[in-house]
Design a protein that fits this description.
mainly alpha; 74% helix; 0% strand; 5 helices
Length: 136
């Protein structure tokens, strides 16, 4: 795994979490549209579940996945932060932290550091050479 691929893991996981959150929102909207059928007749214990129940189960499962992914993201960011701190050049550390932990664009990093985007890309390329990717 390259340094860039290793450092990008947190971003990719964050994107997946956002996608799952949007899915939960969509399922919640769908659940709000379901109309329960009320009856005083007893149901068979092993009968088919209602549409509302199916949606609620999917929401709960997805929320559990999101929580597990968030836990993994927090651990992964801490691990990546530790790897970045081992880079000797402080300016490279700053660029890597802003890019991979704060999720800043190269344009924003350049602006905040008073450098051109081209300089930041060059510095990132050099910083990748200093990143010691942990063996998996």
């Amino acid at each position: 795994m390259t340094a860039k691929e290793y450092l990008s893991q947190a971003y990719r996981l964050d994107v997946r979490i956002d996608s799952k959150i949007r899915q939960v929102s969509s399922l919640n909207d769908l659940a709000g549209k379901c109309t329960p059928v009320l009856s005083d007749m007893p149901k068979a214990p092993s009968g088919p579940t209602s549409r509302m129940e199916e949606i609620i189960v999917k929401i709960i499962d997805l929320e559990n996945e999101i929580n597990a992914d968030i836990d993994r993201l927090v651990d992964l960011k801490a691990e990546i932060a530790g790897v970045i701190k081992k880079v000797a050049n402080m300016e490279y550390q700053t660029i890597l932290e802003r890019r991979y932990l704060a999720g800043m664009s190269v344009e924003d990093i350049a602006s905040s550091m008073g450098k051109s985007e081209r300089q930041i890309y060059r510095m990132l390329k050099e910083a990748y050479q200093e990143v010691a990717v942990p063996e998996t």
